[in-house]
Amino acid sequence: MTTTTTEAAPETRSFEADVAKLLHLMVHSVYSDKDVFLRELVSNAADACEKLRYEGLSNPALLGDDGQPRITVTLDPDARRLSIEDNGIGMSEAELADALGTIARSGTKAFMDRIAGAKDAEGSHLIGQFGVGFYSSFMVADQVEVVSRRAGTDTAASWSSDGLGSYTIQPVDLGDAPARGTRVLLHLKEDAADYAESGTVERTIKTQSGHVPVPILLRDKPDAEPRQIADGAALWTKPKSEITADDYKDFYRSAAGQFDTPALTLHYRAEGLHEYTVLAFIPETKPFDLFDPDRADRMKLYVRRVFITDEAQILPRYLRFVRGLVDSNDLPLNVSREMIQESPVLAAIQKGVANRLLAELDKLSTADTARYLTLWDNFGAVLKEGLYEDFARRETLLGLARFKTTTSNGEWRSLKDYAAGLKENQTAIYYATGTDLDRLATAPQLEGFRARGIEVLLLADQVDSFWVTSGLDYDGKPFRSVTQGLADLGLIPLADGAPPVAAASPAVESFIAFVKQTLGDAVSDVRASDRLTDSAVCLVAPEHGMDRQLEKLLAGAGRLDAAAKPVLEINPRHALVETLSAAEGGDEELRRDAAQLLFDEARIADGELPVDPRAFSARLMRLLQHGLG
């Protein structure tokens, strides 16, 4: 691969002003990993082949007898060298100097300007910008040599630099140049020697550039036969009619690193203001890191079939289980990941892809209910994060949401189903939050709702405690906790066969006042309950306080300075309460013990310990002795 010069002496030229500073910025700031240099060089080579294809439309002689584009990567581990050669359009000596003598300009941009007025611009949108990405080579190489021969000419030239401020350029013998196109030779730094190893290079190219529209060949050693590692056909660019389910599955497993079968495949091309192709998959099983707090979405971003980044955050966090890619025709190839995040084109793509994916889920929910419910089983807890985070799509997400309820017998129910079963005078959608469905279903706070046949959502995911407090409503009905404030069930008639609710007697009212006085500051209030039918007591949050489950979550995370005092509700129709109420004027200590025990019983039913376990035990012993005495 060593070049043989002609009699003309090499000419040394300086890069344009501040090039050393720009190179330093390119290496250390623009690109966040070294692998990117391979992507850039392969991209440049593919662009050169696309240029030749375009110019060959009007001048077929440029193609000669070699009409099949290709990129050949050759490794030399012993000499610590790597070369990437294409049979594309190539560059003359002047074009070499123009394209590689400065970072700020691009030979491809001049080409694009030249064809701007052409009538047949088919495929021209695939042509990238040659120049900027080339300099990422200096992240791994201490010397870079470029030898190029422009198609249709009988001269060749070489360019060489260490990237420190100058470069040399000179003509070379045709025997030392490609028959057509460009060869980039990198003399690798010692710490980059693995880029001369076939395993590293093949893996990186398949990941980053395996779907460029030009076949890629790899030669493991200078004298080895080349083998094809990429066929130049991007799966997502093919018509859907030509792609089988197995093709999608194989691509999904390779791209996503999964071993299951995709539960949903979405493949479409968006046209209009922005053009891009989407190939997305929802896994059949939960990714192991689904609830990792630092996990972002796993959608890859390509630009004209060239991998750019997997950190573009194409989808909102609540869709982070989706795997796949977006291939844009509008974004520039030579742009940093940081700059891409600020692109209005990317913002439009993000919005469009998220909306389309949610629309597809909505279609699936009605077209194939069983398959949709399997997806909801796996990813519903994550999707519900969007109810809290994504105001613009809340209505859509509420339509997608499914819930276990007090009347669903373990089956999933939609809010549409819930709304269809609203009771007379019911003005809210009721819910209960907790950590265990079985425990939630037997909570004493639900008793009055059951007596009236009112359906209650059972919300056992942590995120439920957050989204229900964000001011949402469905079909004009707000969400309301059964464990917060007054139940206000008086206007809703009891179910057939339920006994009428009797008012609290004066004796019970007096006992409730006594309990309130005894408990003092431990509670914010003690009152008669219309939500209890079987249990004696329960705890609820104050009307304008925080839901008790949310309060527990925040306290457990150290994000709550002080908890609100709960409200103790007493069932005025319970036999125990009536007995204690009738004992007024009796043993005062016994009544105080009973008041404290009722409060501790309510805490235990709510999943908490008594305030003072030893005092609770002593009171219980005194009460038992009195009862047995």
Describe this structure as you would to a colleague:
By secondary structure, this protein is α+β, with helices and mostly antiparallel strands. It has three domains: 11-230, Heat Shock Protein 90; 235-373, Ribosomal Protein S5, domain 2; 506-628, Four Helix Bundle (Hemerythrin (Met), subunit A). It is 34% helix and 19% strand. The protein has 20 helices and 23 strands. The strands form four sheets. It has a nine-stranded mixed β-sheet. The protein has a six-stranded mixed β-sheet with strand order 16-15-18-17-20-19. It has a five-stranded mixed β-sheet with strand order 10-11-14-12-13, sandwiched between helices. A hairpin with a 4-residue loop joins strand 2 and strand 3. The protein is elongated, with a radius of gyration of 36 Å. The relative contact order is 0.07. Residues 1-6 and 103-132 have low confidence and may be disordered.
What is the count of DSSP helices, taking H or I runs of 4+ residues? 20
Number of E strands: 23
**Superfamily at the CATH H level of the largest domain?**
Histidine kinase-like ATPase, C-terminal domain
Q: Sheet with the most strands? A: 9 strands, mixed
Separation, N- and C-terminal Cα atoms: 105 Å
Nearest-integer average pLDDT: 85
CATH class of the largest domain: Alpha Beta
Structurally, how many domains make up the residues?
3
Return Rg in Å. 36 Å
Structural class label: alpha+beta
Q: Which fold name is given in CATH as the topology of the largest domain?
A: Heat Shock Protein 90
Reported CATH architecture of the largest domain: 2-Layer Sandwich
